[in-house]
Amino acid sequence: MIRSELIQKLSDENPHLYQRDVERIVNAVFEEIIEAMASGNRVELRGFGAFSVKQRDARTGRNPRTGESVAVEEKHVPFFKAGKLLRDRLNGDA
After folding, report:
1. How many CB atoms lie within 10 A of CB 22?
2. CA angle, 39 as apex, 80 and 82 as ends, to 5°?
3. pLDDT for 41-60, tens place per residue?
4. 8 Å CB contact between 43 and 37
5. Count of domains in the chain?
6. What is the pLDDT of residue 36?
7. Any idea what the CATH number is for the domain that residue 54 is in?
8. Residues 24, 62 share a domain
9. Is there a single domain that holds both residue 49 and residue 9?
10. What is the pLDDT of residue 67?
11. How do residues 13-25 score in pLDDT, each as one tens digit?
12. What stretches of the chain show up as alpha helix (H) in DSSP?
C-alpha cells in the first residue's frame, strides 16, 4: 500500500472527513515519526511496532565489480521491529 492508497482508504472509511483533512493527518503522523527519529528518539506504536535508528560504524567495503577496497562512512539507518500483535496477525494466530 502506498501513501495515496492509505489516504483514500481512510477517507472512504470516514465519510464525515474531507480527503484533504485525512491527507493532512496522515502527513502529520509520518512527519512526527520522521522528526522523532531524526532526533534519535524511538517511536513505538502499540500493537504495530517500533521505529528506531541504528548506527552502523565506518568500515572498509569492497567494490563488487573491481574488488577494490572502498571506505564506507559511519551512517544511521532506520530500523523497524514489528510488535507482537502484528506478528501474530501475519502468522494467522489472531
Report:
1. 19
2. 10
3. 999 999 999 999 999 999 99
4. yes
5. 2
6. 96
7. 4.10.520.10
8. no
9. no
10. 93
11. 999 999 999 999 9
12. 3-13, 19-38, 84-90
pLDDT band for position 93 (cuts 50, 70, 90): confident
Q: Report helix, strand or coil for 3.
A: helix
Residue type, 53: V
Residues linked to residue 32 through DSSP beta bridges, in sequence order: none
- Whose cell is 480527503? That residue is 19
Domain match, 27 and 62 both: no
Asked if residue 67 lies in contact with residue 89, where contact means CB atoms within 8 angstroms, the answer is no
% the chain with pLDDT above 90: 97
Q: Are residues 66 and 34 located together in one domain of the fold?
A: no
Angstrom CA distances, 42 to 5, 37, 48, stand at: 26, 6, 14
User: Residue 28 is part of which domain span?
Assistant: 1-39
**Burial bucket for residue 54 (CB in 10 Å: 0-12, 13-18, 19+):** exposed
Residues 49 and 86: beta-carbon distance below 8 Å: yes
Residues 35 and 78 grouped into a single domain? no
Q: Does residue 1 sit in the same domain as residue 35?
A: yes
